[in-house]
UniProtKB/TrEMBL annotation:
Cofactor(s) needed by this chain: K(+); Mg(2+)
Record-linked SUPFAM superfamilies: Ribokinase-like (SSF53613), YjeF N-terminal domain-like (SSF64153)
Cofactor descriptive note: Binds 1 potassium ion per subunit.
Protein encoded by which gene: nnrD
Species, as recorded: Psychroflexus maritimus
Name of the molecule in the record: Bifunctional NAD(P)H-hydrate repair enzyme
Length: 500
C-alpha cells in the first residue's frame, strides 16, 4: 500500500472525480458518510454531546457534512467554524448551505476570545486542518488545540490530527490535536508511522473512500506500508518434488558470554521459517542447550573452518548475542572475508560495525542490517527529527549499498531508495529476544533465495503477524519471544491461504 503526500493525494482525488464522474462535494459526501459510520460505533447517540470544529477548507467541509449527519440522527451537536481564512472551498460552501437550510447553528471562532467552554463536550470532532496544512497554524488555533487536548472528551480527528504535517516535523512550540481515534481516508499518512508523531496517533483507522486504484498504482512514492496483500504475493509455494537442498543452508553465528538464548531463538525461528538446513555456531559451553532447544539444527564448533570449507552458505546471520570480545571481532573478520551471498547483521555485529567503520566498505552488496534505534544512532549518527532520521538512513544505505531494517512500532525497511513501513505487530514485541526471532525469520527467507527486499518485507510482516496471533493466548504484557516463534506457523498459514 502506498503512502502519499498532499500533492499526490490531491492528484488522486482529481483523477477519481474525473473517472467516476463525481463532483468534489460528492467525493466529500462519500468520505464523510463512511467516517460517520465509524463515529457512530464510538459514540452514544442518545447521551453524547458532540462538538465539531471545522476549518474553512475541505477538512472543514468533512466536519460540516458530519455535523449534518449527526444532526439527522438526533445527536446533540455544536458546530464551530474555525475561520482561519476568508476564502473557503466550494464543497465547504455547499455544506454550510445545507446546515443553514437545516437550521443548524454555526458558531464562529476567529480569535482566542471566541474559543468556547469545552466542558460540556463528551466527544470532539477535529476537522480543522487535514492533509493541506503547510505552515504553522494561527495562534488562536494553537490555543484552541491546547484546550481540546486538555479536555476529557473523546477526540476524533478527521483524516489527520490538526497541526500535523505530512512531510515535515512539528516544532516543539507547535500544537497538534492528540486524538483518541483518527479516521484517515484510504491510505495511511507518513507521520502516523514515525515515532515522534505516531506516538500521538496510536489509533488510526483507514476509511476506504473508493479512490482510483489505477491512479494510486501509477503514483510514484518512496513511502510504502506493508499489508497482507503486498506480502502474500511474495510468498512462494513449496514444490512437491523439493528436498531440503532446495531451501538453502543457513548459518547463524552468535551466543557468547552467556547469551546462548539469543542465537538459539534465532535458530528456532529460522527452522520455523522454511530454511532447508540450519547450522548454528555458538560458544561451546552452550552446545547442550542448543541441542535441547533446537534438535533439528546442526552445531558448528569451528566457525572459521566451516566458513572456509563451505563457499555455499545460502545465507549467514551474525551478531545475536555475539558480544564484543576479540573473539567476536575475529569471527566478524572471518565472515567479511568469506563475502557471503546473503548476509544479515544483527545486534553485536552492528555494534562492532559502528566501532570499526572501515568494515562498512567490506559488507557484501545488499547485506541486511537490523538495528534498533540505539544501534541505528551508532551507525548513522544523531538525527534532528524523524524525517532527518529517514534521510540519514537512506544516505547510509546508498553509500554502503545495504538494506536497513529499523526496528520499532512500525518497523521500517530502507533500501536506499524506498521505505517500507510494517503494519503488523504490537507492543508485546517490545522485549528482549524479539529481534533475535526476526533475524531468524529473515535469514531463513534469504537462504531460500527470496530477493533481499522481499525477504525483508515478508520477514518483518510475518514476525508481526505471529506476535498479533499470539495475543489469542497471551497478552501484550506476557508475550515473550519464544511465544512469537510458536505462532510463526499460524502466521505462515495465514499467508499460505492467500496464495492462489
Ligand atoms: N481523498 C481524500 O482524501 C479526500 C479528502 N477530503 C478532505 O479534504 C482534506 C484536504 O483538503 P484541503 O482543502 O486540501 O486541505 P485542508 O482542509 O487541510 O485545508 C488546508 C488549506 O488551508 C490553507 N492552509 C494550510 N496551512 C495553513 C495555515 N497554517 N494557516 C492558514 N491556512 C492554511 C491551505 O491553502 P493555502 O493556499 O493557503 O496554502 C489549504 O488549502 C483532507 O484532509 C480530507 O479531510 C475530502 O473530503 C474528499 C476526499
Ligand atoms: K483534522
Amino acid at each position: 500500500m502506498k503512502i502519499l503526500n498532499a500533492k499526490e493525494l490531491a492528484e488522486v482525488d482529481a483523477f477519481t472525480m474525473n473517472s467516476q464522474s463525481l463532483s468534489d462535494w460528492e467525493l466529500m459526501e462519500r468520505a464523510s458518510s463512511r467516517a460517520f459510520l465509524e463515529i457512530l460505533k464510538k459514540i452514544n447517540p442518545e447521551k453524547d454531546f458532540v462538538y465539531i470544529f471545522c476549518g474553512t477548507s475541505n477538512n472543514g467541509g468533512d466536519g460540516l457534512a458530519l455535523a449534518r449527519m449527526l444532526n439527522q440522527k438526533q445527536v446533540k451537536i455544536r458546530v464551530f467554524e474555525v475561520a482561519y481564512s476568508s476564502s473557503t472551498s466550494k464543497a465547504y460552501q455547499k455544506n454550510i448551505k445545507f446546515l443553514k437550510e437545516n437550521r443548524i447553528q454555526i458558531n464562529t471562532v476567529q480569535n482566542q476570545n471566541e474559543i468556547p467552554d469545552l466542558n460540556p463536550a463528551t466527544c470532539i470532532i477535529d476537522a480543522i486542518f487535514g492533509v493541506g496544512l503547510n505552515r504553522r497554524m494561527p495562534g488562536f488555533i494553537q490555543e484552541l488545540v491546547k484546550k481540546i487536548n486538555l479536555t476529557e472528551a473523546f477526540k476524533i480527528s478527521i483524516d489527520v490530527p490538526s497541526g500535523m504535517y505530512l512531510e515535515q516535523s512539528i516544532e516543539t512550540d507547535e500544537e497538534f490535536v492528540i486524538s483518541d481515534l483518527c479516521l484517515t481516508f484510504q491510505l495511511p499518512k507518513l507521520p502516523f508511522l514515525l515515532p515522534e508523531t505516531g506516538h500521538y496517533v496510536e489509533n488510526f483507522k483507514l476509511i476506504d473512500i473508493g479512490l482510483s486504484e489505477e491512479k494510486i498504482k501509477q503514483t510514484k512514492t518512496p513511502y510504502n506500508y506493508i499489508t497482507t496483500s503486498d506480502v502474500s504475493s511474495i510468498l512462494k509455494k513449496r514444490a512437491k518434488f523439493s528436498h531440503k537442498g532446495s531451501f538453502g543452508n543457513a548459518l547463524l553465528i552468535g551466543g557468547y558470554e552467556g547469551m546462548w538464548g539469543s542465537v538459539i531463538m534465532t535458530t528456532q525461528a529460522c527452522l520455523r521459517s522454511g530454511a532447508g538446513k540450519v547450522y548454528t555456531h555458538l560458544d561451546k559451553t552452550g552446545r547442550l542447550v542448543l541441542a535441547q532447544h533446537a534438535l533439528e539444527s546442526i552445531y558448528i564448533q569451528n566457525c572459521p573452518k566451516a566458513l572456509k570449507s563451505n563457499p555455499n552458505w545460502n545465507a549467514i546471520g551474525v551478531g545475536m548475542g555475539l558480544g564484543l570480545s576479540n573473539n567476536a571481532v575475529q569471527l566478524m573478520e572471518e565472515v567479511l572475508a568469506h563475502q557471503p551471498k546473503r548476509l544479515l547483521l544483527d545486534a553485536d555485529a552492528i555494534n562492532l560495525l559502528s566501532k570499526q567503520k572501515n568494515w562498512l566498505k567490506l559488507l557484501p552488496k545488499n547485506s541486511v542490517l537490523t538495528p534498533h534505534i540505539g544501534e541505528l544512532k551508532r551507525l548513522v549518527g544523531e538525527w534532528d527529527n524523524d524525517f532527518d532520521k529517514l534521510n540519514k538512513a537512506k544516505q547510509f544505505c546508498k553509500t554502503y549499498q545495504v538494506v536497513l531494517i529499523i526496528k520499532g512500532a512500525h518497523t521500517c525497511i530502507c533500501d536506499g531508495t524506498n521505505f517500507y513501513f510494517n503494519s503488523s505487530g504490537n507492543p508485546g514485541l517490545a522485549k528482549a529476544g524479539s529481534g533475535d526471532v526476526l533475524a531468524g525469520v529473515i535469514t531463513a527467507l534469504l537462504a531460500q533465495n527470496y530477493k533481499v527486499l522481499e525477504a525483508c518485507q515478508l520477514g518483518v510482516y510475518l514476525h508481526g503477524v505471529a506476535a498479533d496471533l499470539a495475543l489469542e493466548s497471551f497478552s501484550e504484557h506476557s508475550l515473550i519471544a519464544t511465544d512469537v516463534i510458536s505462532y510463526l506457523g499460524k502466521a505462515f498459514q495465514l499467508l499460505e491461504s492467500k496464495i492462489d
